Amino acid sequence: MIEFNPQSYEYSVIGSKGQVKALDRTKVVITILPGKPPGMTPGEIRDAWSGESMPRPGEKCIRRDLDRALEAGMAASNGAGMKGDPTRYYASPNRSSHTQNAMPDSSIP
Questions:
Q1: Strand-strand pairing, 88-91 and 75-78
Q2: 22-26: which pairs have CB atoms within 8 A and are 24 or more residues apart?
Q3: Rounded distance between C-alpha atoms, residue 42 and residue 48, angstroms
Q4: Where do the structural domains in the chain lie, given as residue ranges?
Q5: DSSP string spanning 50-94?
Q6: pLDDT of 102 over the 90 cut
Q7: Is 97 left (phi over 0), alpha (psi -120 to 50) or beta?
Q8: Is residue 85 packed enough to be buried (19+ CB in 10 Å), middle (13-18) or exposed (0-12)?
Q9: What CATH class has 17-107?
């Protein structure tokens, strides 16, 4: 997919359709996440997803998006990822310093 910049009158490649969808989903996930621990599980994020801006994804998809957000420094996590101590995610305090397209290219299928 390409994007037009009206200021420079230039087009730029922003990725495949799948990459753009993943980036859009991740942006929604980040807006749902609380700004501090203890955070939310992928299931809680899915339950909080309104579905207005885009369809509600499954928990597996949300986990992949959270992994990308962790790698990009847009989210942080805590918990051991076990039944009594699930992994919980929250928005990274420095997420505002990341640009809109700060997702690592290598992490998006």
A1: antiparallel
A2: 22/64, 22/65, 22/68, 22/103, 22/108, 22/109, 23/101, 23/103, 23/108, 24/54, 25/54, 25/57, 25/61, 25/62, 25/65, 26/65, 26/68, 26/69, 26/74, 26/103
A3: 10
A4: 17-107
A5: --SSSPPPPHHHHHHHHHHHHHTTSEEEES-SBTTB--EEEE-TT
A6: no
A7: alpha
A8: exposed
A9: mainly alpha
> Torsion over CA of 77, 81, 86 and 92, rounded to 10 degrees?
10
Which residue has 């805590």 as its token pair?
Answer: 78
Nearest one of 29, 16, 40, 12 to 68, comparing CA atoms? 29
Q: What are phi and psi of 88, to 5 degrees?
A: -120, 145
Task: Give the bridge partners for 22, in sequence order.
Answer: none
Residue among 88, 82, 49, 81 at smallest CA distance from 66:
88
Task: Name the nearest CA neighbour of 65 among 99, 18, 97.
Answer: 18
Give per-residue pLDDT as tens, 19-74: 889 989 999 999 999 999 999 999 999 999 998 888 999 999 999 999 999 999 99
